[in-house]
Amino acid sequence: MAKAELKQDATEARIATLDMPKGGKWIAAARADALARLRAMGLPARRDEYWRYTRPDTLTQADAPAAALFDGKERPVFDSVDRLRIVFVDGVFDAASSDDLTMSGVEIERLESASGADIHWAKDLYGVLEARGQKPVDRPLAVLNSAFATDGVLIRVTGKAAKPVSLIYTHASESSDAILHHVVKLEKGAELTLLENGPAAARFNKVLEVEVADGARFHHIRAQGRDHERRAATHVFARLGTESQFKSFTLTVNGVLTRNEAVIELTGDDAVAHIAGAAMGDGAFHHDDTVFITHDAVNCESRQVFKKVLRNGAVGVFQGKILVKEGAQKTDGYQISQSLLLDGDSQFLAKPELEIYADDVACSHGSTSGAIDMDALYYLRSRGVPRKEATDLLVLSFLAEAVDEIEDEGLREEIVSRLTGWLDRRGG
Amino acid sequence: MLEIKNLHVKLEAEDKAILKGVDLVIEPGKVHAIMGPNGSGKSTLSYVLSGRDGYEVTEGEATLDGVDILEMEPEERAAAGLFLAFQYPVEIPGVGNMTFLRTAVNAQRKARGQDEMSAADFLKVIREKAKTLQIDADMLKRPVNVGFSGGEKKRNEILQMAMLEPKMCILDETDSGLDVDAMKLVSDGVNALRDAGRSFLVITHYQRLLDHIKPDVVHIMADGRIIKTGGPDLALEVEKNGYADLLAEAGAA
User: Fold this and answer.
1) Given A107, A207, A297, A370, which is the most exposed site by the fewest CB atoms within 10 A?
2) pLDDT in tens, A196-209
3) Residue B167 above 60 pLDDT?
4) Is B51–A382 a contact, with Cβ atoms under 8 angstroms apart?
């Protein structure tokens, strides 16, 4: 078939540009397995159903399209937060800018140094959660990542982490193409907050695999950098044990193309998974949230809250699915995706899905697209609040449901300060 | 204070005339009431004065202390001292009531060239004013009007009025949706603000609100015009006999 052959050619062309890093037995096996899966699957193409709303070509082509560096004067996000910093510049670990990687309750290793070993705890997770997430939908960019990731961190959490681990992705070269792969394992009852921020590279492919064991809690807050021309395809694969918690929030501000996929499996009873996102795009901005949550245990809760503010031709995409397997009774699933279109040029495309095979569940989903509420605007202005300020307040009001998913007040305020910064820079 | 001359207004969307020559003068310190049947144009008058979109003034003028307000943006009218207590206060999820009020107070101060109020001063003042309106700390923290009962929403309107200290207050059917106790509370809040330098325009269907907020002048509005003006007795007459006689009288005149 011509189409399949074309896809195969494109995949081989991309593979030809990449070098598989050297490593010990366990990682070499994981990489070889991923490469074989990638060849069988092929990279995403424009006609793939899962890529219907987002063109994958610039994410799959051999070279990364150039991206200018944003000359931002504002204080970097999370700057005031006491955290353990791990810095990557264009996807390369920067020891000089990073903190010492030791902290009580947490073991942190670089993928590059850990991969030299013949055996490692990460063997049961690296590329494993990713592979589990390939059904029923292919996620080839994540497979490519498992095969070719050059670095990343392996984090094992045995207790309550003393402070957040912060991954900082600096962008320094206009043509950088970065592939990072992180694995986080929270042992029983452990707790970690993981922060991520920065534009990372001209093109960034990142996978985060997270195992949350029974009773463990994982908080994830991410602020994706605002270099206007950067591109990113990110995946998070999470597996949740009994009474565990997974809470993830992502802020995306600008960036010409972002595809954030999340694949979450609730495999232990009474687990809770919340995933939320706030995206603000002005002009050449395409932002895609693709989420797949599988309920495979009793009495679990999942919540998806995605909000996008779009103007001047920005495009927002949401593909979200809740799959409730047979026997996953008492599931409480909630999904909302909404866009606020600040003008007539912007676009929001949503594909919410529910697939339920249990008979005692409560699942709801909703998706809306709308303009600023003129009644609310008039109300605010009638109290003396000028139009621009009133509109900004309503934008923050619109995003609040997503932002409120961040439990920690200090971190929430860090995110809100980014939102207000964006609004201040925006013209009236 | 407020002077309206021969005001004609139509709905932009429907090209339909609503106000057909309203004349009204409210002196400083006075309370005027406007009563009238449904569709007479009472609420339209309040919207036009506060600057809501969708209405077109085809003739006439409205001035506040001699300054034309009809060309002003809604926020400019607010800063000039005009306040409308809404019949249906709008819910704004995600914006705390306190944040909203502080933004409004400081925006108006800024527009008038005054310094912003400090967080501490603001807190002190709002706590005091909220207390008299029986608005608790929780209501101040909650998002604006979200999940508020009808009575809470109206009390919140009066709190905003108390904080913004306008000189011309328009109350649009503030009594609608209120039980007797809530009406008393709201009326007490309004009466506490009565002052020689502050005027009120109270729009209502029913005389009962005027038992609590005693007007100096009562106007009857019908079909976009004020058809009769009198003292507080006029409201009692309406309560007793309805509008039919007055409408017939106006029609005959």
Assistant:
1) A370
2) 999 999 999 999 99
3) yes
4) yes
Q: CB distance B107–A399 less than 8 Å?
A: no
* B133-157 per-position pLDDT tens digit: 888 888 999 999 999 998 899 999 9
- The CA distance from B66 to the nearest CA of chain A, in Å, is 20
Q: In Å, how far is B234's CA from the nearest CA of chain A?
A: 31
Q: With an 8 Å Cβ cutoff, is A397 touching chain B?
A: yes
- Taking residue B169's Cβ as centre, other Cβ atoms within 10 Å add up to 24
Provide the β-strand partners of residue B232: none
**Region class of A42: left (phi > 0), else alpha (psi between -120 and 50), else beta:** left
CA angle B202, B208, B212 (to 5 degrees): 70
Q: Look at chain A and count its residues.
A: 428
Whether chain B has a CB inside 8 Å of the CB on A380: the answer is yes
- Rounded to 10 degrees, the C-alpha dihedral B219/B220/B226/B230 comes to -40
What's the N-to-C CA distance of chain B in angstroms? Answer: 30
B173 DSSP 8-state letter:
S
User: What number of CA atoms fall less than 13 Å from residue A146's CA on the CB side?
Assistant: 34
Chain-chain contact of B75 with A379 (C-beta, under 8 angstroms): no
| Chain A interface includes B113 (CB < 8 A) | no
**Residue B252 pLDDT exceeds 70:** no
User: Which residues contact residue A145 at a Cβ distance below 8 angstroms, ignoring those fewer than 6 apart?
Assistant: A130, A179, A180, A181, A205, A206, A207, A235
Domain B2-90+150-244, CATH class in plain words:
alpha beta
CA distance A379 to chain B (A): 7
Spell out which residues of chain B touch residue A394, defining contact as CB-CB under 8 Å. Answer: 92, 95
